[in-house]
Structures are given as structure tokens and as C-alpha cells.
Fold:
Amino acid sequence: MSPVQRHVQCASPAGLHRISYLQWGAANNSEVLVCVHGLTRCARDFDNLARALSDRYRVVCPDVAGRGDSDWLADPMLYDVPQYVADMVTLVARLDVEQVHWVGTSMGGLIGMALAAQKDTPVAKLVLNDAGPVVGKAALERIATYVGMWPPLPSLQAAEQLVRAVAAPFGPHTDEEWRFLTEVVTRRNADGSWRFHYDPKIAEPFRKNMPEGDMELWPLWDAVRCPTLVIRGAQSDLLSKATAEQMTTRGPQAKLVELPGIGHAPTLMHDDQIGIVRDFLLA
Structure:
């Protein structure tokens, strides 16, 4: 099964831009699952999950602005959650449904949490994959060491070595899986070299808005009311165990599942992780 690629036009204070998204399953299915990737990743990260759930859902996987096949923004300071939420509202309107279920990894989880916190939100069920209302300072500093950096990549093999190093917290993957995780986030230049798929300027607001300590978003979490699942890599430096446990007692009082041997963030590529998501969404 292959997805269909579509686009939707969105607005920002700097003008119009197109968001690309992949749609899996029956186009007329009113049961929609939206899957949103992390800061430097893309829609293709959810291929396995989307394929597995497309028997029950129309699965929609967008490239967030500045990533994948979506347009880059004219004003890089708009690369932030408020613009991403606005784009996702436009996307849901395009899908012509009143409610969606949502799976978000890292940044995609923050976007989902912010959208789920709004009055009359379309988010009816929420899965946060290693994301929550407190983002650890250590993780932000670690991400800042590589986001927006485009070292020379003379070959796909060199790109894979870099992806394996940066994404080591994803946990164990086969050589084939590492190659896939590399291919979907790289593009070949005219001179034969390789680059990452995203606008390097996504790093500008990320670094400018770096907090002095942890980034805390508890008011958003406390406003969420829909059933929520939190998946945490047991070795995550972005979502602490203490924060994850507190998420089970306030706000939507989430269900929590921890995955041993994994940091930030689980890829949701493997059958056991897909099963956790499927069981929660279809319960």
C-alpha cells in the first residue's frame, strides 16, 4: 500500500505557503488519524504506523512547514508552535472532518497538545510520543548542537553515519531501518552531494527562544480534556520520568507507557510500539 501525496495552502503573517501531506487508506473514511513528526524529521517517519492503521483510519501525515516537501517560510521566526497549530487547523479543515485522533512525536506532540488544549478542539484522542509539558534543558541544548547544521555530506553513507550518531537515542534498529531513517530526511544536490531536507533556518527561533531552564507548558496540559496516552523512552532526556508520572495525575490524567532501552524518541516503527498506539486508539 502506498500513500497519496496532497497539498494544502496555509497562511502566515509573511504570506501563503503550502503544506505537503501523505494520505493513507480510504479517502472517504471519516475516521482520521493525524501523525506529526519531530523537529528535524518528516512525514515518512510514520510509514509503518500509517500502513498498519490504514485499515481503520484515513491516516494523514503532514510535513510541517520548512520540512520535507512543504514550503519553507519567508520569515524564519515563524517556525514555532503557534504557526504550526494554525497550519494544522487548516489541514483538518481540508480533511472535512469534525474530529481527529492525533499521534505526535516530540515537536509533533507539542503541536498536538497545544491544539488539544483549545476550546472546541478537533482532537478527540491524543498520543504524545516522548513529549510533554516540561521539555528538559539538557535535551534542548543537545538538539541545539546539530539542528540547522549542514556539514558536507559527500555520500548517502556519510549521511547515514551522521543520522546514526544524532539519532542514537532512537534505540536499536536494523541496518535497513537506519538506511530508511536516513533516506527520508536527505536530499541530493545538483553537484552530487547530500543535504538534510529541512530549512536550516528552523534553528533561528529554536536558539533565540532557548529558555534559561526547562521549558514548562503546564497550563496547556491542564487544559487538555481528551483521552491521552504518553509514550516515554525510559532513557529520554527530553521527557523526564517525574514529568511523565505527573502527567498521569493532572490535566487529562494520561495513561503512561515506558519503553526500556530507548531515549528520545521512540520511532514507532516496530510492531510492539505500533501495537501500543493501536490498542489505545481503538480501545
Q: What stands out?
A: Residues 234 and 241 are 8 Å apart (CA to CA). The two ends are 25 Å apart (CA to CA).
